[in-house]
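User: I'm preparing a small set of examples for a lab meeting where we compare how different chains pack in three dimensions. I only have the primary sequence for this one, and I'd like the structure in token form so I can line it up with the others. Please keep the answer compact; I'll paste it straight into my notes.
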Amino acid sequence: MTEKSVVRALEWLKRNQKPNGSWGDKNQEAMTGLGLLTFLAHGETTSSKDYGPTVENAIRYLVQAQKEDGIF
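Assistant: Understood. Below is the structure token output for the 72-residue chain.
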């Protein structure tokens, strides 16, 4: 039952990810980090069959959003 709920959450996040790879309207870097964390905690990577592109897009968004000094 728990796994079913987790997969439903991952599917929701996948469907609601913005084209630029982020989630949220405010604090996009924080929301994207949390969204990405849910996939990573489930064992998903950029090479995952179902969620690979979602994970990759989130990582790409965070990398481009990070400033030279490491701050978002």
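A couple of notes for your slides: DSSP finds three helices and no strands in the chain. The helical segments are 2-16, 28-41, 52-65.

User: Perfect, thanks.
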